[in-house]
From TrEMBL:
InterPro entries noted in UniProt: Acyl_transf_3_dom (IPR002656), Acyltransferase_3 (IPR050879), SGNH (IPR043968)
Entries under Pfam families matching the protein: Acyl_transf_3, SGNH
Protein name per the record: Peptidoglycan/LPS O-acetylase OafA/YrhL, contains acyltransferase and SGNH-hydrolase domains
GO cellular component: membrane
One Gene Ontology biological process: lipopolysaccharide biosynthetic process
Keyword annotations of the record: Acyltransferase, Hydrolase, Membrane, Transferase, Transmembrane, Transmembrane helix
Transmembrane segments: 46-65, 86-105, 154-173, 185-206, 218-235, 242-260, 266-285, 371-393
Domain SGNH residue range list: 449-678
Residue ranges of domain Acyltransferase in the record: 21-347
Keyword Acyltransferase: yes
Domain of life: Bacteria
Record carries keyword NADP: no
Length: 687
C-alpha cells in the first residue's frame, strides 16, 4: 500500500524538502500492479513490497532530519504527521465499505464485517487475518472487503513505534556522543533487517499464510528501504549504468507477479525481488540522463496516479470484493474489471481532493495533541459501530445455545419421524441465526486443551489435544482427524458425560487420520506440517491407550468427484488394528457445490436451490464393498440418514440450519444428531 510519509530525500547527507517525481511514478507503477493483478488474476504482484520498502526509506529521511536539525526526535509530532495523512482517507473508506457491505453482503458475513472493521480501525487487521489463517490465494469473492488494511496495519505499527525508539536513541547519543548517531543507526537497522529477513525465510517455510500477514517477517522490507536511505543516500551510478539498472528494475518489477507465486512464496527470500527493484530505482534516481527510466516515471499521468496511490489502494479492494459478491462471480468479466478499476479511480480522485489533501493540511497546522484528538474522534463512530454489532451478534449466539433442548428445534430427529418434514416450523425462526451461523462450531464444552511442540525435524509442527473428563473414568475415547471429524465432538461430548467416558480430541484442519495428505498437495502451504503430524499420529494415539478411536470413514463427493474410501484411511486403520485398538469410522457428512448459508440468505430455505441431491453426495454400495477390505476391529457407520432424506440433503432440518458453509455442519445441528446415533453407537462398541 502507498507510503504514509511524504518524500524529502536528495543526494545530500542532510535531508532537504525536494520532491522526486520519479518516486511518484514508482508509486503509480506499484499500485497499478496491485490493482491490475487483483482484478484480473487474483495473484500477488509485489507492489505492496515496494510500498513497504518506500515507507522505510522515507521514514529514515523524516526522522534523521529531525535528529540532525535539533539533536532529538519529537515522537508526538512524527506520529501526528503520519496519522494526519493516513487516518482521514482510511476512515472514509471504512465507513463506505461498511455501509455498502451491509447492503451487499449476506447476513452470514455481518460478524466478519464487524470484526474486520474493528481491527482495521485499530491497525491490527494483519493480526486478525493471522488468527483467521487466511489464504491470500483464496477466492476474492469470499475475502473480507477490508482485507487490504493488513499492509496498512504493518506500516502503522512500525511508523508509530519507530519515532519512539529513535527518540530514545537520540537521548542516549546527546552531546559528544552525537557523532555516533548515524553509525549507530546503521548498525541497529542492519541488525534488525538481517534478523527479520532470516525469520521471514524460516516463518514462510513453516507457515506461509501466517508469515504473509505478520509484522516481524515483513519488517526487513521496511528495513531495507531504511538502509538505502542511511547508507546510499548520496550514491548515484554513472549514466550508462543508471540507464541499464533503472530500466532493468522496472522490467523486473513488472515481471515479478507473473514469474513468482507471491501468494504462496512471500514474504520469504522471494520477496527480495520486488524490494530490490524498488531500492535500485531509489538509488538510480535521475542518473540515466535523457535515456534514464526517470523520464518514464516522471510523466504527468504517472505522477497523477502516484499522488492518488494511497486512496486507490484503499478503495480498489472493497469495490472488487463487493462487486464479486453482488454478481455471484468468482472473477470479474472484462467489462466488470474495467468497471471496478474506473470506479476505484473515481473514488480515489474524490478522496484525494476532498479528504486526503485538505484534512492532512489542516491537521498538520494544529497542535499535535489536538490533531490526535480529532483523529480519534473520526475513528470513534466506526469503533462504536463495530463493537455494538459484535455485542448484538454475541447475544444471538447466546440465544442459540439456550435453545439447544427446545422442542421447537428437533433438528435431525425430524428425519426419523413417521412423516419426514425437513423444513422449519411456522412462526418460529430457525436456529442458528444466519448472523452467527459461521461461528457455530461443534465443540466439547468444559474440555481442557494443551498445545505441544513436536520434536524439531525437517517439518516441525504442533499438536493440540483436548481432554473432557478426568483420567480415572472407566473408558477413554479418542476422536481424531480433520474438521469433518470435529463434527462429532458435540454429540460424543454429550455421550461421554452421560456414560462417564473420557473424550480426547486430536483435531487438525485439513489433516485426516490417514497415511496420505488428502487436501494439501505436495509443495503447497500446510503440506509438510500435515504430513509430519500424520506421521506421528498412530504413535500418539497408541500412547493414550484408548478403548476406542473415532474418525471419519469416507470422503463424500465434492464437485465432479464421487464418494470414496481413500487408501490412506485403510492403511492408517490397519496400523491401529495392529496395535489392538478398535475404530469406529463415521461416514462423511455431505458437501455442497455452493455456500449454503449464503444461498439461504439470498433465496430462503428453498430446497431446490440450496439443498443437494443425495445421489450427488453419496455412492450407493460403497459401504457394502468396503466391508470386505476393512481391517479387524474397524466398523464403518452409515450416517447419511442423519443428514439426508432418500432424495435430498436439505439446508434446513427440524427448524435447524444444517451447514455453516459449503461442507461443515453447525454445532447446533450436530447436538440434535446425538439421539439418532446413541443406540447404534453403543451397539457397535458393545459397552
Amino acid at each position: 500500500m502507498p507510503v504514509l510519509l511524504e518524500p524529502s530525500p536528495t543526494a545530500r547527507s542532510r535531508p532537504h524538502l525536494v520532491r522526486r517525481p520519479e518516486i511518484d511514478g514508482l508509486r503509480a507503477l506499484a499500485v497499478a500492479l496491485v490493482v491490475g493483478y487483483h482484478v484480473t488474476t487474483g495473484q500477488v504482484s509485489g507492489g505492496v513490497d515496494v510500498f513497504l520498502a518506500l515507507s522505510g526509506f522515507f521514514l529514515v529521511h523524516s526522522l534523521l532530519g529531525q535528529v540532525e536539525r535539533s539533536g532529538r526526535v519529537h515522537p508526538l509530532t512524527s506520529i501526528t504527521r503520519t496519522l494526519s495523512r493516513l487516518a482521514p482517507p482510511a476512515a472514509l473508506v471504512l465507513a463506505g465499505t461498511t455501509a455498502a457491505g451491509a447492503f451487499v453482503l449476506p447476513e452470514t458475513r455481518w460478524r466478519e464485517l464487524a470484526g474486520h472493521l474493528l481491527t482495521s480501525a485499530t491497525a491490527t487487521e494483519n493480526q486478525h487475518l493471522v488468527a483467521e489463517s487466511v489464504d491470500y490465494a483464496a477466492s476474492n469473492a469470499i475475502a473480507s472487503p477490508m482485507q487490504q488494511f493488513w499492509s496498512l496495519s504493518i506500516q502503522v505499527q512500525v511508523l508509530l513505534a519507530a519515532p519512539v525508539v529513535v527518540a530514545a536513541g537520540a537521548l542516549l547519543l546527546r552531546g559528544p556522543r552525537r557523532r555516533f548517531a548515524r553509525p549507530a543507526a546503521v548498525l541497529a537497522v542492519a541488525a534488525v533487517t538481517a534478523a527479520s529477513f532470516a525469520w521471514s525465510v524460516v516463518a514462510t517455510r513453516a507457515d506461509q499464510q501466517v508469515a504473509y500477514f505478520s509484522t516481524l517477517p515483513r519488517l526487513w522490507e521496511l528495513g531495507a528501504g531504511a538502509l538505502v536511505a542511511l547508507v546510499l543516500g548520496g550514491v548515484r551510478p554513472g549514466r550508462r549504468a543508471g540507464v541499464l539498472l533503472g530500466w532493468g528494475a522496472v522490467v523486473a518489477l513488472v515481471a515479478c507477479g507473473a514469474v513468482l507465486d507471491g501468494a504462496h512464496a512471500f514474504p520469504g527470500w522471494q520477496a527480495a525481488w520486488p524490494v530490490a527493484c524498488a531500492l535500485v530505482l531509489l538509488v538510480v534516481a535521475d542518473s540515466g540522463g535523457r535515456h534514464g527510466v526517470h523520464r518514464l516515471l516522471g510523466l504527468r499521468p504517472l505522477r497523477w496516479l502516484g499522488a492518488r496511490s494511497y486512496a486507490l489502494y484503499l478503495w480498489h479492494w472493497p469495490v472488487l470484493v463487493l462487486y464479486l459478491v453482488h454478481t455471484g462471480q468468482e472473477a470479474p468479466s472484462v467489462e466488470g474489471a474495467v468497471a471496478v478499476i474506473l470506479l476505484s479511480l473515481a473514488l480515489a480522485e474524490a478522496t484525494h481532493r476532498l479528504v486526503e489533501q485538505p484534512a492532512s493540511q489542516r491537521l498538520r497546522t494544529l497542535r499535535p495533541s489536538r490533531a490526535l484528538g480529532l483523529v480519534a474522534a473520526g475513528m470513534a463512530p466506526l469503533l462504536v459501530l463495530g463493537a455494538v454489532t459484535t455485542v448484538w451478534i454475541d447475544r444471538e449466539a447466546a440465544r442459540v445455545a439456550a435453545a439447544a433442548d427446545d422442542p421447537d428445534y428437533p433438528g435431525a430427529v425430524a428425519l426419523s419421524a413417521p412423516v419426514v418434514a425437513t423444513g422449519g416450523i411456522p412462526g418460529v425462526e430457525p436456529l442458528p441465526s444466519l448472523s452467527v451461523i459461521r461461528d457455530d462450531h461443534p465443540f466439547m464444552p468444559g474440555a481442557e486443551c494443551t498445545v505441544a511442540d513436536d520434536p524439531p525435524d525437517a517439518a516441525p509442527t504442533q499438536t493440540e489435544m483436548c481432554f473432557l473428563g478426568s483420567d480415572d473414568r472407566e473408558r477413554r475415547v479418542v476422536i481424531v482427524g480433520d474438521s469433518h471429524a470435529a463434527h462429532w465432538l458435540s454429540p460424543l461430548a454429550d455421550l461421554a458425560e452421560d456414560h462417564q467416558w473420557q473424550l480426547v480430541s486430536l483435531i487438525r484442519a485439513g489433516c485426516s487420520l490417514s497415511t496420505q495428505s488428502e487436501f494439501f498437495e505436495e509443495g503447497t502451504p500446510g503440506y509438510e506440517g500435515c504430513v509430519a503430524w500424520q506421521s506421528r499420529l498412530t504413535e500418539r494415539i497408541v500412547s493414550l491407550q484408548p478403548d476406542l478411536v473415532v474418525t471419519v470413514g469416507t470422503r463424500t463427493a465434492y464437485g465432479t468427484d464421487e464418494e470414496r474410501l481413500p487408501p490412506g484411511f485403510l492403511e492408517a486403520w490397519q496400523q491401529l488394528s495392529d496395535a489392538g485398538l478398535p475404530v469406529i469410522a463415521m461416514r462423511d457428512s455431505p458437501r455442497h457445490l455452493q455456500d449454503v448459508p449464503d444461498c439461504v440468505a439470498q433465496w430462503g430455505d428453498a430446497a431446490d436451490r440450496c439443498g443437494t441431491p443425495r445421489s450427488w453426495v453419496y455412492t450407493d454400495g460403497l459401504l457394502e464393498a468396503a466391508e470386505a477390505v476393512l481391517p479387524t476391529g474397524v466398523s464403518l457407520v452409515d450416517t447419511s440418514s442423519w443428514f439426508c432424506t432418500d432424495d435430498l440433503c436439505p439446508p434446513l432440518v427440524g427448524n435447524v440450519w444444517v451447514y455453516r458453509d459449503d461442507g461443515h455442519v453447525t454445532g447446533t445441528y450436530m447436538r440434535t444428531v446425538r439421539s439418532l446415533m446413541e443406540e447404534e453407537f453403543l451397539m457397535r462398541v458393545g459397552w
